[in-house]
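All the exercises in this workshop are built on plain-text protein records. A learned vocabulary of local backbone shapes supplies the integers on the structure line. Once this layout is familiar, the rest of the handout is easier to follow. An example says more than a description, so a record of this kind follows:
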Amino acid sequence: MKTIQSLKMNKNIFSVVTNFSEANDMEYWFSLSPLERLEAIEIMRQIIYGYDPTSDRLQRVFTVIKHP
């Protein structure tokens, strides 16, 4: 699975489109396999919410206390 660190943006390519190109977007997404779509969703989630594998950990729910 791809991560943000493994992706590189090609800054030489730039396109301007209108919001009326939804039909082309649907064709593109339907042409991908389900796994490729899930990978794209995960990459977008990491971009939006941030991702740092060294600091992201599960929240501690339980605490250990001594019973008298």
Remarks:
- The mean pLDDT is 77.
